Amino acid sequence: MEVITLIQGDDMSDLTPLFLVHAISGVALPFLHLHSLSDDDRPVYGITSPLHCPGGDVLKYPTSLKDLAAFYLDGIRDIQPEGPYLLGGWSMGGMIAMFIAQMLEARGEEVYKVIMIDSANPEVFPKFKSTEEHWEFAKTTFDRTISAGGLQSHDGDGADDFPVSPAITSNCEMDDYIATQSRHSSVWKSPSSPTISSARSSVASIFDSNSPFTSLGSPLSDGFLTDDSGCDSDCGSDCDEPPAMEEFLRHIKTHIHRGLDLISSVQLGDLFTPGTKSDFDAVLIKCTAGPIDVAEEYKGNSGAQLIETVMREQNMRWNPSQFRSFQSIPFSGDHDAAFQPQFIGELSSILRECIEDVE
């Protein structure tokens, strides 16, 4: 698996490439679900965290969201040395794309547009009050991501529609991998699939430990540690993952823990210099499905309440006057299931319309 991978289109095309940055999982696999975004083979690249790539275990992980964006920018410029640039990302990826855009402008490069899929302004996110709070948020996010984050098989065998990474297919037998997915079919279902039709928006499970998504569990959730844990000793046979699959999930878990730390560390002024204006268009594709609830035990948590409020807002705390233009486009999907089959057609159409006027 490479950090930047062509997921559709022709890399020799004269059209401006679209670079899409991963969400909190660190993987770009969900972008493979997108329908064609161009009739003219516009290249679309997915950006995966180096943690999921060869050598990721010894990576010195960036200490800020800005540093992570700078790392990705180097790779982007290897592919496209000059602007104009077209950037996007899902959730955390939209935040990173915005940092990349700011860096490009600071270097005198032209950025045409940044497209964010349900990404909030990271400057408003609160810092964690304790290691325990960080741990709980990371564990819940991991459970939610595995259950609903666009990484799962959609049917009984999962052979045709699960975008398995090269690392997995090269390190374990596909039959074993598919069998594993079948055993965990409830874990890997979409929160909006018919089998869980009564479930609320998976965004609701950000703090709701009793939500239908976190209660499903996941192969590694009970023994959540940040870096080098495998399976908890009391997981039983459910932890009987092929080695490469277990490693893949461990990397997701680690990336979520580190990613949340980077987001919560962004301070006012880190992304936008006060008094300046960005000379590019910004588009927020805003998920509208389902209520967002804070679990009862977090009702007194000011940080949880703030994030709940931000996730409900049409602009998600982005200041429209900060950009050349700003548009918030409603999307019927929910935050974690945005790339699921029931939503991917609508999402693809919105993205296609966002870039069709870019040469």
From TrEMBL:
Highest taxon of source: Eukaryota
Gene3D superfamilies recorded: alpha/beta hydrolase
Annotated Pfam families: Thioesterase (PF00975)
SUPFAM superfamilies (UniProt xref): alpha/beta-Hydrolases
Coiled coil: none
InterPro entries for this protein: AB_hydrolase_fold (IPR029058), Thioesterase (IPR001031)
Residue ranges of domain Thioesterase in the record: 17-124
Protein name from the UniProt record: Beta-ketoacyl synthase
Lineage: Eukaryota, Fungi, Dikarya, Ascomycota, Pezizomycotina
